[in-house]
Design goal:
Number of helices: 12
Strand content: 25-35%
Low-confidence stretches: 1-30
CATH architecture of one domain: 3-Layer(aba) Sandwich
Number of strands: 38
Distance between the termini: 49 Å
Shape: globular
Radius of gyration: 25 Å
CATH superfamily of one domain: Alpha/Beta hydrolase fold, catalytic domain
Helix content: 10-25%
Length: 726
Amino acid sequence: MKQLTRLSLAALALCGACQQTPKSDSNTTTTVQPSVFEPDQFTAPHPEKKPKELVSASGDKRSDEYYWLNERDNPAVKAYLEAENRYTDSVLLPVKGLQEKLFAELKARIKEDDSSVPYFKNGYWYIVRFETGKEYPIFTRKKGNLDAAEEMLVDVNELAKGQAYCQLGGLSVSPDNKLLAYSVDYTGRNLFKLFFKDLSNGQMLRDSFDVGGAFAWANDSKTVLYDTKDKVTLRNDKIWRHVLGSDQKKDVLMYEEKDVTQYAYLSKSKSEQYFFINSAYTQTVEVHYLDANNPTGQFKSVRPREKDFFYSLEHWNDKFIIRTNWEAKNFRLMEAPVSDPRRENWKDVLPHKNDVLIDNFTVFKDHLVTEEHKGGLGQIHVIRWADKADHYIETGEPTYGCNLENNPEFDTKILRYVFNSMKTPATVIDYDMETRAKTVKKVAPVLGGFDTNNYETEFIWATARDGVKVPISIMYKKGLKRDGSAPCHLTGYGSYGYSYDPYFNRDKISLVDRGFVVGIAHIRGGMEMGYQWYENGKMLNKMKTFTDFIDCADHLVKEKYTSSDRLFAEGRSAGGLLMGAVTNLRPDLFKGIITGVPFVDVITTMSDASIPLTTGEYTEWGNPAIKEQYDYMKSYSPYDNLKQGNYPNILVLTSFADSQVQYWEPAKYVARVRDLKTDDNVLLLKTNMSGSHGGSSGRFERLKERALEYSWMMGLLGMTGEKMKQ
């Protein structure tokens, strides 16, 4: 899977400070009160219409009256976005106090002076910590033991001074432990600059240059491999070699990916012995490898690329361990000698299973560990190399998420993983792979009186219109009455094969404690139920993603977890496409829709090869130059399927600097909906003028967006106090 898609996840920060969480009585039946908003009191912006005819390769014609909003440098564009922001602020005035209270509540749930569980690598303990009042993390290390003096690696708060946006891309210490490389994005468009620091004296090196995002040290601790992006499409397409102290203009091009549908991804093996270049997108991957002790050598291909043939490598002793879909829809693990890793020499390590998806794996001296999905939920599988004895780590909750943590050590029997559920905060566990003993290293603190025992979770199944069972994870306060009176917040994604696991989200406690049911619809297009779950929700099957979400929402209404007059749906990025589609298909089903950085103008974007991500996503959405694929995309593209009629309340959030979904898609969408809607419902557009695809970069600043969303929903339900009026 490619690393950068129109996929957006909120970053999970370490937590801080304290305030009692408001109590609510979930046993009391609630009645919906009138919305506190009166949008008709204010004049909504209406950008100028400048119709532009768009003609497909097959001759189909469309007219786009707001196409001109893609003129990023046009002052009229920014003026329109700022006018929408003012309009949004005006409409939301009745809940401004609630919004401020929610922000304070969300922030107070975070332990501000928090730190990560240290991990050990190459003689040092590495720690990430936050300090009270500061937005950004601080990266440090200690030599030998945790009582040693702390050495500063990077204080992102210092990097962020004077910057509207600051995102650390990654950091890596040289094999000799003397130098640090780290990358920073100050634009919000995933455009990074690489810096180097001498850890012996804290001085910065003169070497500094643009990178695509990935970089790795050669084992001589003076040579660095890094990637760069095409300046227009932002496609990672070249891998370079740089020697510290040399002129960057003399850097050597190691690899160039000329296929515009593929991306070049650089990584290094856990053993630190090999560089890998994955020339990849979704199912089609070609891997090249190079001995990290010989950075001036030539990369070698393991196997030439072939359509829909996927494989990735890890190094273990004298073998490469290979995850592949070769004759294995849900993937299998194989091995091949490093000396000759051609496919003819591949042998099974972990065979394919029809009901188990192998998502990921890591290797240890004596064990192999895989992350898997079965029956909609994740699981961790431990296998001993010597005799292939295996077992799964027990979980104990009906719906949950678990994933491997940082495991850089090779010769150890201790596996570190993280367990979550919708009611259980992220729990870091050290697991003895031989004795099966668990040692809890940390439970993410949640302040404000949170008690996991106050909540219930369920893993339920909705029946889709074609008879397929679709899982839903839900959480609510104990004592919920299943009479349809509870408001509900349902999220979904369903693209790129991303499995939307039910991790803990501390922000949603503010909803659940006020009587909301919160849920995740595990719809087709992800991989929760295996690779076929993805295939059945992409390309010419994409409509199933949308109808699955509608059928899940209908199920919650029919089973009286909620009702349509208090049901809210939310999705971001490709999940915003989902929101746009379900809004068009079933506007009557939802009280409100929250759509963040939404990919809603599918055909126009996919027809423009200069827009970042486009060419690499033909296998996800389709190529508009192919009539069948164009016609299918046109049948669901939210912007192209808007029509006159009633729409639910809609809140649209975007970022001006977003490189994954350009700001003009949501801007055009809102303008056209406003032209066509015949109802009095609230339609708002809020543009973050300095944020990225994920919103603001600071851990507290992003909470303001959550508070805006939550206060908007509560305002629509007449919830001006702690809970809905009785």
